[in-house]
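User: Here's a chain of 185 residues. Predict its fold as tokens.
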Amino acid sequence: MIDLSIPISFKTNEKASKNEKMVSFGHLGTHFDIMDFEFPLEYTRRQGIVFNVYGKNEIDLADIEIELIKEKMLLAFYSGFINEEQYGTAKYFSSHPQLSVRLIETILAKRVSLIGVDFAGIRRGNEHAPMDKHCADRGVFIIENLCNLDKILRGRESAEFRANIYPINFTGISGLPCRVTAEVD
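Assistant: Prediction complete.
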């Protein structure tokens, strides 16, 4: 078992709250951008796949093997950003990698359940919330701020795992704190 969730302390909360206004609305640490939808309980256990996109700033189709993605999966991206830029800093929230719109649309067409990243969002700035809503409208939720994805990869370009997701039962907010673990062979 590998814990993919950021440990949160008083100090972590304080730093993140200074640099990201949405932290107080359920967006602290590892969380879903649920966009006021109810999290489907069947999403709490999923087959997952993580792709190594280390060092990429704009992640595109050519950076992954799209044919490995199956319907209802948790699709995760390991960029290493969370290891290099400490969670909660201004740079962490504003200068993180992002997925290309073309990649996001291709992923949505594959009908995955969840997209997980080891940074603060699949798009940056003014594109962040609208793209999260676009995905949620299609039943795909974004898990932000995952960690330890490299422990699943173990030097490989991609690796499958079993994901266990434990969302907090909050309602009426756009972010849903959660704990995510991976079972690997």
